Amino acid sequence: MGSSSKNIEQAQECCYHEWMSLQFQRIPELKQLLAQRRSHGDEDNDNKLRELTGKIIGDFKNYAAKRADLAHRCSSNYYAPTWNSPLENALIWMGGCRPSSFFRLVYALCGSQTEIRVTQFLRNIDGYESS
């Protein structure tokens, strides 16, 4: 089990580094397009900016999907990745990205039915039948 979690951790770290390398490739192009927009302001440049923005958002969506898939196998790295420095992890938490934030979001999205379902689930685990 120890090597399995280590492999998942390495896969998560690899996923992160792939996404960061994509960001490093896109940033110079984005800066160039923004500088051209300031100086020229043509419509063709705006279309290129929209296209690049779409690519960047797509990259993030792919990264988030891969990370979510890996989180199903090992969720602790989802909240405090081991490849981050302690300062980065502290900034993540201070910035509001805490496990409790995710629970609040799920509760807000699911509404009050969450409490009822959790109670029913816990009763079924304890062997009590809900009527």
TrEMBL record:
One of its GO terms (biological process) is DNA-templated transcription. One of its GO terms (molecular function) is sequence-specific DNA binding. Signal peptide: none annotated. Residues 9-131 form the DOG1 domain. It comes from the Eukaryota. Pfam families: DOG1 (PF14144). InterPro entries: Seed_Dev/Stress_Resp_Reg, TGA_domain. This is DOG1. It comes from Arabidopsis thaliana. The gene is DOG1.
